[in-house]
């Protein structure tokens, strides 16, 4: 046998073995490599809005550890406003996961998990106002009376689009923290906030703004779900978070987690005594809105928030 032929056959055998072993090596590496989560950073130490999502993400990653392996959770080096955050998520290097109210642009540009992180509670909105406006708000004929007033919102917030599409006047602020100062300066009449946000915000600022108050008579329902958004550069991480959220939804632990973190806020909001205004959301897929298991109805007597009729 020619020496070169013998050498070729040995080389060929080595190549074949490498081709057969490589997928196994990749599988083992994929199974044991830690999934690295980089979550976005809050606007300031006083901005608590990311805390619930961070706690939920921790639960999701722990729940999926048997199937997907170990993980790490880190945080971005600096806070990013939404346009910059969207660009960073597309790239997937500085940040690869966040949780935000669903925006039409984000739904198209990013991978998302179609299970609302708080089962829709943030879409129940009550307002911060100047306490001198409390009696006026209580006497408004709805919805036209509220349409005659002006709301304050962030310039790129999904709430702004919802108010605009439904015929409500609004002014915008360039950043979250400045909106509180604008409200108390009379730049607008009311500041709609999620029922999961408003009491933290009020408690933090009532000393600095003695006339700040939580409006007592109206609740807006804008049907804007907060979702986990994942960089399209990280499909495995998207699969993992989706699996964890569906698992928590199916065994009831997501509902328990939501109520554990928000029951006090819901009771404090006294939603049952408020007049409700619906703000339809055309940006969300009808299938998501129609999937009843995704949405926690705070008016259901079994939750103990509102009394049985």
Summarize this structure as a short list of keywords or feature phrases.
13 helices; alpha/beta; D-Maltodextrin-Binding Protein, domain 2; 309 residues; 3-stranded antiparallel beta sheet; 44% helix; 18% strand; 5-stranded mixed beta sheet; 12 strands
Report on the structure:
By secondary structure, this protein is an alpha/beta fold. It has helices spanning 3-32, 51-63, 65-68, 82-91, 104-109, 134-139, 144-147, 158-165, 176-184, 198-205, 235-250, 253-269, 286-290, and strands at residues 35-39, 71-75, 97-101, 111-113, 124-130, 150-154, 169-173, 191-194, 212-214, 218-221, 226-230, 275-278. It has a domain at 31-120 and 228-272: Periplasmic binding protein-like II (D-Maltodextrin-Binding Protein, domain 2, 3-Layer(aba) Sandwich). Helix 2 crosses helix 11. The longest helix has 30 residues, at 3-32. It is globular and about 60 Å long. Residues 25-31 have low confidence and may be disordered.
Please outline what is shown here.
This protein has 309 residues and is α/β, with parallel strands linked by helices.
Helix and strand content put the structural class at alpha/beta
* Helix content class: 40-55%
Number of helices: 13
Mean pLDDT: 89
Which fold name corresponds to the CATH topology of the domain at 31-120 and 228-272?
Answer: D-Maltodextrin-Binding Protein, domain 2
What is the CATH architecture annotation of the domain at 31-120 and 228-272? 3-Layer(aba) Sandwich
How many DSSP E strands? Answer: 12
Strand coverage percent:
15-25%
Shape: globular
Give the end-to-end Cα distance, rounded to a whole number of Å.
94 Å
User: CATH class of the domain at 31-120 and 228-272, anyone?
Assistant: Alpha Beta
**Compute the gyration radius: what is it?**
24 Å
Q: Secondary-structure element order, as H and E?
A: HEHHEHEHEEHHEHEHEHEEEHHEH
